[in-house]
Amino acid sequence: MKKSMIAIGIVLVILVGGVIFLQNVNLNRVGADEYFTQINGEGTKTEDKMSDGGIHIRYEYELPAYDKDGNQKTLTFSADKQLRENAYLLLFVKNGKDVTSYQEVKDEELPKKVAEVLE
Questions:
Q1: Would you call 87 exposed, middle or buried from its count of C-beta atoms within 10 A (0-12, 13-18, 19+)?
Q2: What range defines the domain where residue 112 resides?
Q3: C-beta atoms surrounding 75 within 10 Å
Q4: Are 114 and 70 in contact (CB under 8 A)?
Q5: Mind telling me which InterPro entries this protein's record contains (predicted)?
Q6: Residue-wise pLDDT tens digits, 51-72
Q7: Which helix or strand (DSSP H or E) is residue 113 part of?
Q8: 70-117 pLDDT, tens per residue?
Q9: DSSP 3-state of 111
Q10: DSSP structure class, residue 97
Q11: For residues 62 and 43, what is the distance between their CA atoms, to the nearest angstrom?
């Protein structure tokens, strides 16, 4: 009886830990290459009609991006809102070209070679 209670307790701890882990980890970033870019321009506004009749607005950006070594690649990605002009972004890229996620970073977080190119 005691062994089965311990086993059930261990399973519950593993399940709760797994749920907490999945809530705090963005799987779109796991295993992705990192590129840095700076927002220049307003992006191209696109409107998609949803099945319920609503309108979904997105902004598409095509910008040069740089890996930590300063190698350039032009990447295309979209956002649900217009991004702040001159903001620095960290792009998460899978399959060499698919931007799966992004986050804004401060200029002091840029790798040295990237900062030299973007500033």
A1: middle
A2: 31-118
A3: 19
A4: yes
A5: DUF1093, YxeA-like_sf
A6: 888 899 999 999 999 999 999 9
A7: helix 112-118
A8: 999 999 999 999 999 999 999 999 988 889 999 999 989 999 899 888
A9: coil
A10: T
A11: 8
